[in-house]
# Entry
Amino acid sequence: MKGWPLALLVAAIAGGCGGKPEHVTAGDAAMGREVIAEAGCGVCHEIPGIAGARGRLGPSLAGLGNRRLIAGQLPNRQDVLARWIRNAPAFAPQTAMPPMPLDENAARDAAAYLARLR
Amino acid sequence: MGGRPFTPLGLLLLTGGCGGMQAVLAPAGPDAAAVRPLSLVLFTGGAVIFLMVMGLAAWAILTRPERRRWLSRPGAIVAMGGIFPVATLTALLVHALLLTEWSGGAPAAADTPLRIEVIGEQWWWRVTYLDGDGAPIVETANEIRIPVGRPVEFVLKSADVIHSFWVPKLGGKRDMIPGRVNRLTLAADTPGVFRGQCAEYCGGPHTLMAFEVVALPPEDFDRWLSAEREPARAPAHDRATQGQSLFLAHGCGGCHRVRGTEADGVIGPDLTHLGSRRRIAAASFPMNQGTLAGWIADNQHLKPGNHMPSFAIFSGVELRALAAYLEGLK
# Structure
């Protein structure tokens, strides 16, 4: 875990050089990591970097940042991901994933963390 | 999420045992405060003795033979190898026995302690609040709310194997032994959440047999206890109503009780006010609809060997309905 702040810093700097700015919304990945741990996302998802997050009811979130679609149907942008986290059934009525009790900022932070899983 | 109490520093302190909600060295009650000096003496004393021994070993290895000869004289061996450890360990033993005798004992006669029966079961805690005559008032599980500043007498039992009840910030451990009743009186000085854990290996997912003690100001505690005695709330919306129907139709009530409904099982935790608890599955996971749904469908993966089967029989929509119903049981 020690490498995280450095890795994030590098990612942040590198992201500013050649990223796709329209996909970047404000969100603090380090805070997002705590949000994810506190919300218990790991009960259903395997999430690299989150202690005990080895759930398998939902898909693994490893490499989520590389995927083109969220849940196989939505463009993988951080703002969309944040909205998905807060209210997945609004996008996918049959999903088992309930709306997660996170405010907008917390969801954005969580999305920022997940987007960096490459 | 506004507060976000878990900073990386907090996490570091938590793992370091120096702060956080389960820290021996950060007491939140008189009993834990009495244990703290002993812990400090043990840790620092152990460190000093270790350094002395290593120093002497280095001396014995590195120095010239005539200068280290005194180390092998009978006098040195008897003093350092016999008298010192016997004296040190005897002093510690006497102190620890006196401390054990004193701590967790009966409170001052003037106080009427609150009595709470806690039964250790593989792998959760059945919690029953008792009245003055020892008759049950209300049953809950895995979360124990207490009033600040008032001694609480825990009546400790086991339903199966030996467990041990330990809330490090409030006091020492006490075993829960099948066929016996042990008692432990603790008090909290400040409001807060203090994590406790089973401290005696009890098989299977022993690691995930935790609980939380929530110390509240007395008036908040009284309000909570009277709310806790009420039967379960009716579902507040359609999805929760659907969840309740599923809960009852699929026999969840065979093991779980939800007072005010036909679910009257006594094998598993009482769920009457599940939604008001902070965590689920013996404090293993946070409480929200997501973790509840995940637990229902795949708990054997999350807490292998626990006595609830994974219910992989529900659709996504049904799981959400069940989770909405359960979370609404405030």
